[in-house]
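Page 47, continued from p. 46.
Same chain as before, 388 aa.
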Amino acid sequence: MTYADLLKEYHISSKRGFVLEHPVTDLDDAKFQRITSGADVGTIRRSLNYIEDFDVDALTTHEEQRHAKLFLETIVQGYLYMDINAYEEEDLSKVPDRLPESLALPCMKLSQLLGMKPVISHASVSLANVKLIEGKDNEEFVAENLELIIPRTYMKDADTEGYSWFFRVTAEIEAGFAPAIHSIGSACYESIQGNSEIDLEESLTAIISSCEKARLGFKRYRVNLPPRVFYYEVRPCLWGYDQLPNGMKFGSSEEAVKYRGASASESTSMQVVDAFLNINYNPMQKGIIVANRSFMPAGHRKFIEYVEKAVAKDDNDNSLLHRIHSHPLFPSAMKSLKDLRSEHVNLVTLYVITQMKSGSESPVSPGKMLLGFIKSFRDACIVTEKSE
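Result:
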């Protein structure tokens, strides 16, 4: 297998990283067109008949399957949360605790084909939902030049620009990791092939550059996304089933699941960088990291495992891991990753902690727990750096 074959197998773009480089924006399948033209997310509970005979088997490519999953996830979010007004009390008693079979069956089948959980995911809403605006095909892949493939939010009177800006900036940040992902993959490929002449300077330089670009990208959310809009309009559109008292049942099944919704913690890019640098996470952190992989497409998950295999191949002075950690650029790479995670802490503080209503600020609130986890991941970078 050539390195180009490896990238293709794991659905990685040398230009966009884990962002779909050639996303499907519509499908020729007549049944799918009936759904996209007839099902209004805002009135989806009255439109389920459009989905009942949707043929998942008609989707023959990875891009088609990702587009269909994105669309169905959007429909599910509308079906579940269209009555919720997050600006007021988040009364989840209005939320259905069962998906009808017309939604549940295609969602489960698509998820099985892609190796993902049947719930809204970062891989769909951020990695498979953006394209360059028509006429800007040769322009830079930045939020200003992007548009959402499925731009709708089911919330009434929503700030559509703020909603769109969040996902466009996220896609910009993810695509900015492409040079690092490509060079990391190449170094691991050469190591597994037995080549001892590996250009680690290129890989570590790409990591430093990509992390700095992402750190600056985190600051760009502020341009068109007020914290209040994120917390009360974007955040509810990312909910899964974990906050529902009884979880979610699929079709006629009596088994309830509590999958959480879309989260940046599902970023394959960050996990690839972590794996290559061999960040010293504790068992609890490692468990969270591995659990997050189940929300990724199978190919992305396998690529992380491929990098881990290459780095852990041998524990000797000539191993890839030893050469990475002894390289003069390793401290700079660690600093860039630590700085990126510090900016993530600032971002969560601004967009989540400061927006929490009075009375929800206990040390065990979800927002505080999230902030604590992010800080612990940042601190793991410090521990790794000092141990070398």
